[in-house]
Specification:
378 residues; alpha/beta; 2 domains; seven-stranded mixed sheet; two-stranded antiparallel ribbon; 9% strand
């Protein structure tokens, strides 16, 4: 999943680290590697995407990039845990179907463009849109991880929840990904930059650490949107930091709260980062207790009470089930299934919610109606 406008507003908590430096390096880190993000980055190169379009399901050069990246992390870090996506999340089936259709359309257009004019400027864009992870390529990547002496872990559904669980349990101290959901779930993240996904191997990886918000927040409240200032003031503990960012995800958009009109993410059309910051500031200054205690009802009340430029339009478009939609976002993050005993001494393949416990402790969870996949830990 991805959260709207998250990365640009958290630049103040990013630190460039040196892989080989004795301090602020990676030598003491056990990294959890989001293999799907790495694989997508490897397949994004035009030549490899073209091979996919023309029928080669496992381009050798892309596989070499994956191998080099995993090998580099193994050489520079204390440990590496590789996590692959499992089954698609049920609430994203419609979106996944749309993505698949777009990729198929782009593949057909890319083939036509390649036959007509091989250097068509539009071809590169079509190749980017067409690139997808094939079962054959994923299998080769699993084999590669094993050949490098590492254990592949197959998440029940998306890798981000499993990675967050491993971080929570102390099996990883840093997550390598481009998925902002891992930040929202409280993890330290070494970001795979979209424009230069393998830049971290060039000696300048950037680590985002929410724990630095208090030390690095501006002394005075900025005029524009600033998540670091909000986290520094209201995210005083790990649980509060996570809840603040989940409210942000519910308001501005993530992969599980597409609007009912089908034309975007987030609770409200035209509701941007400035308005979201005003609502979060209102919550922080008017709600007693910690941010970890903020409820969906309080978020909706803040939407009505806070002052922001788009307020009239926002309230006019506020859906009648806004509270339920916000609660669904909270649950989508907190209740997603993970392998709870992976890498533990008595590992049995136990699947339960990311928030801990079991689904019997969550009688209202939507996951009761979902057929959970068979546990597979690689």
């Amino acid at each position: 999943m991805g959260i709207t406008a998250l990365w640009p507003l958290l630049e103040l908590i990013a630190t460039v680290v040196s892989a080989t430096a004795p301090t602020r390096g990676l030598a003491d880190e056990v990294v959890g590697l989001d293999m799907s993000v790495l694989i997508h980055a490897a397949l994004a190169a035009p030549d490899d995407a073209l091979e996919l379009v023309l029928g080669n399901p496992a381009p050798a050069a892309a596989l070499a990039r994956v191998r080099n990246a995993v090998d580099w992390l193994t050489a520079h870090c204390k440990g590496v845990v590789c996590v692959f996506d499992g089954a698609p999340r049920p609430e994203k089936r419609a979106e996944e179907a749309q993505r698949k259709q777009r990729r198929e359309d782009a593949t057909r257009k890319a083939r036509d463009a390649y036959r007509k004019i091989k250097n068509d400027p539009a071809l590169r864009q079509l190749l980017r849109e067409a690139a997808s992870i094939t079962p054959e390529f994923k299998r080769e990547c699993v084999y590669t991880v094993v050949e490098l002496g590492l254990r592949p872990i197959m998440a029940p559904f998306e890798a981000d929840g499993q990675l967050a669980w491993l971080y929570k349990r102390g099996h990883a101290s840093l997550i390598v990904t481009n998925d902002g959901d891992l930040l929202a779930l409280g993890c330290r993240v070494l970001r795979i930059e979209p424009a230069r996904p393998f830049m971290f191997m060039d000696g300048a990886p950037r680590v985002y650490d929410l724990g630095l918000a208090v030390a690095r927040m501006p002394a005075t409240q900025p005029v524009g949107p600033d998540l670091t200032w909000l986290l520094g003031n209201y995210g005083k503990d790990a649980a509060s930091t996570v809840q603040l960012l989940l409210v942000w995800a519910a308001l501005l958009g993530c992969d599980v709260n597409h609007r009912s009109d089908g034309k975007g993410k987030g609770l409200l059309k035209g509701f941007g980062p400035v308005a979201a910051c005003r609502v979060l500031q209102y919550l922080g200054s008017h709600c007693s207790g910690k941010a970890s205690e903020w409820t969906a009802q309080q978020v909706v009340a803040a939407l009505r009470a806070a002052e922001y430029r788009s307020k009239a339009a926002a309230l006019a478009a506020l859906p009648s089930d806004a509270v339920q939609q916000i609660e669904a976002v909270f649950a989508a993050f907190r209740e997603q299934p993970v392998l709870q005993d992976v890498l533990e001494r008595d590992e049995m393949g136990l699947i339960g919610p990311l928030c801990g416990g079991s689904y019997s402790d969550l009688p209202r969870s939507a996951w009761h109606s979902v057929q959970l996949p068979a546990a597979s830990t690689g």
